[in-house]
Amino acid sequence: LEGAVSGLAISLNGVATAILTPILFKLIYLIL
Q1: What gap in Å lies between CA 1 and CA 8, rounded to an integer?
Q2: 2, 17, 21, 24: least buried by Cβ within 10 Å?
Q3: Cα separations in angstroms, 18 against 3, 7, 32
Q4: Rounded CA separation 13/5 (Å)
Q5: How far apart are CA 32 and CA 21, in angstroms?
Q6: Cα torsion at 18, 24, 26, 28 (round to 10°)?
Q7: Which of 3, 30, 11 is nearest to 22 (CA)?
Q8: First-residue to last-residue Cα distance in the chain
Q9: Could you list the mean pLDDT of each consecutive 10-residue stretch along the chain, which spans 32 residues?
């Protein structure tokens, strides 16, 4: 069970990174 929770957390982290990274780049681009 612990492994499954860990795997789910890692996959959610990957999804969040994939969504947030382009947004962060756009914000940095706008600020600069």
Answers
A1: 11
A2: 2
A3: 22, 17, 22
A4: 12
A5: 16
A6: -150
A7: 30
A8: 45
A9: 90 94 95 92
> What's the confidence (pLDDT) of residue 1?
78
The Cα 7–Cα 29 span in angstroms is 33
Torsion of CA 20, 22, 27, 32, to 10 degrees: 140
pTM recorded for the entire structure = 0.55
Identity at 26, one-letter amino acid code: K
Q: What is the pLDDT of residue 14?
A: 94
Dmax (CA) of the chain: 45
Residue 23's identity, in one-letter code, is I
